[in-house]
Amino acid sequence: MTAHPPATPAPDFGPHVRAVARTGRTVVQPRMGFTDPARMRAGLRAVRAARAATVGTITVDSYTRVGDLAAAAAAVGDGTELNGYPLLTHPVPVTRAVLADVAGMPVQVRHGCATPEAIVAGLVAAGLSATEGGPVSYCLPYGRTPLTESVEAWRRSCARLARLRDDGVRPHLETFGGCLLGQLCPPSLLVAMSVLEALFFCQHGVDSVSVSYAQQVDHAQDVAAVRALRRLADDLLPTEDQHVVVYAYMGVFPTTRRGARRVLADAARLATAARAERLIVKTEAEAFRIPTIAENVAALEAAADEAAGPGDPVLDVDEERRIHGEAATIVAAVRDLADDVGTALLRAFRRGYLDIPYCLHPDNAGGTRAYVDDRGRLAWDRIGRLPLGGLVRPRRGRRPTAASLLRDLNRVRDRADAPELPAARPGDALGG
Amino acid sequence: MTSPPPPAERAAGPVVVSGVSSDAHTWNLVFLHLLIEECGHAVRNLGPCVPPDLLVSACLDAAPSLIVLSSVNGHGHRDGLDSIRAVRAEPRLAGVPVVIGGKLDVTGELAPERARRLLDAGAHAVCTDDTGVHELRAILASRPARTPLAA
């Protein structure tokens, strides 16, 4: 090969998703990354060809994520299968060739890295402009990178992406703040974190953003949370180019195919009921291994079919008001700490205004705990120094124990894997 | 520099809970934290991704009565060995037992020779998945607690 093929032009990620959503469809997206460029290319082609409104994903492997490029290169050299695409190991022309068949479909890079400058540089070199994460959500839940380092790294990464606008490209960033430890975080903190990270992106020049929310334990509570997220984002983000993305459950996943299908169907109904523009699916293989291309396509098509339905539009107005109120209070208290959002985030963690339940990172205060209450919803057990005094109702039920923690962590899996669904349908908890 | 506390005082120190260097999992450490507190012991939880030198310095600071290492990513038999060797190489931690458990290799059934290596390196016990929690409870029950167990 003597010359790089030209960069593959693709529509800008944010405007594309919003345009599809305006036609009444939910954009669906996989989590997908393969070591072998030919397989990655085939995977993206299959995603584009799926019977659904799709956008593509390149998920980066975990050696690249932690910056161990020697290990990634060694794995590529001896043909070892990694858990993602080694974006910084394959030469740029190879990655451009991977993307060559799917011009017309936006592709996002997903990575999980607290200090993503190299990954951002790599995706820009490959002609891409959409990625995800955030200075808090990709730092505190994973490893020990100090939050100050992560904030600085994300400032620089945002600045690099923002420069793409000089070339007429609209770079897009999605916050991962709606996930945190994947489970057992009350919705109001997920909503607040997602909005705060999106504010950080906007302040650093990336104003095509999406705010995220990961499916939790109760459908009606999730619908309320996603609606609250949209309202807060609408009110606070200084951009029109914003949308909401729902993640299919990120906690302990069902081990039966039927259980996995139930959880995925619930996620699609959540996206529809709360009018989220985009949904990131998981597959039936989730609990066991990296899914195949065919399993990804099947999950995308099943989710799109389910999302085309009515979506159980249960409205729990009180719950939505409560989540919105708590989240708005947290965001306002954090923003009062500094005009610069990154500085405000650092101060907020030092003061405990932000404090992720069960997160053991040295920069997390560790004063909060959450649990699944008697109605089967996420609730605060301890609020530490979160600015929620007066807003949070007294704890109902018993204090978390090791046994109750395990039960709460496994709740979604055990319910979905059960031979028969309990009599209650999503939303019935409203009467409780 | 402080001299090591006398044995009686050391026995009342907290239980240090820690992950190992390459393992980012958190929920196993949270579970152990609650379990050990319920057994009446104070806990110093170091969190995930703890390299051996950090483990040693944190233990010198905490003066623990027991060190509990947990790993579930399948690399624990290797990373845990490094952690245990580092603790045992520090004379000021000579009297502090180390227990390691979880899913310590990718098969989920730790090979006996791997368990042997961990014990030879100075682990007090290797707790594998099925019986690990019962074994840990028994070890905790045999040690002086911070507070009397609740009735």
Compile the SSE list and pairings.
The complex is a heterodimer of chains A (432) and B (151).
Chain A: H1 13-22, E1 27-29, H2 37-49, E2 56-59, H3 62-65, H4 69-77, H5 92-99, E3 107-110, H6 117-125, E4 130-133, H7 147-162, E5 172-175, H8 187-203, E6 209-214, H9 219-236, E7 242-247, H10 257-273, E8 278-280, H11 293-307, H12 317-335, H13 341-351, E9 368-372, E10 378-383, H14 402-417
Parallel strand pairs in A: 1-8, 2-3, 3-4, 4-5, 5-6, 6-7, 7-8
Antiparallel strand pairs in A: 9-10
Chain B: H1 7-11, E1 15-18, H2 27-38, E2 43-45, H3 52-62, E3 66-71, H4 76-88, E4 98-102, H5 112-120, E5 125-128, H6 132-141
Parallel strand pairs in B: 1-2, 1-3, 3-4, 4-5
Explain what this protein looks like in three dimensions:
The complex is a heterodimer of chains A (432) and B (151). With 432 residues, chain A is of the alpha/beta class. Chain A has helices at 13-22, 37-49, 62-65, 69-77, 92-99, 117-125, 147-162, 187-203, 219-236, 257-273, 293-307, 317-335, 341-351, 402-417, and strands at 27-29, 56-59, 107-110, 130-133, 172-175, 209-214, 242-247, 278-280, 368-372, 378-383. In chain A, 42% of the residues lie in helices and 10% in strands. Mean pLDDT of chain A is 92; it is low at 1-6 and 425-432. By secondary structure, chain B is an alpha/beta fold. Chain B contains 6 helices and 5 strands. Chain B has helices spanning 7-11, 27-38, 52-62, 76-88, 112-120, 132-141, and strands spanning 15-18, 43-45, 66-71, 98-102, 125-128. Chain B is globular, with a radius of gyration of 14 Å. Chain B starts with 6 loop residues before the first helix and ends in a 10-residue tail after the last helix. The interface between A and B is medium-sized, with 16 and 16 residues.
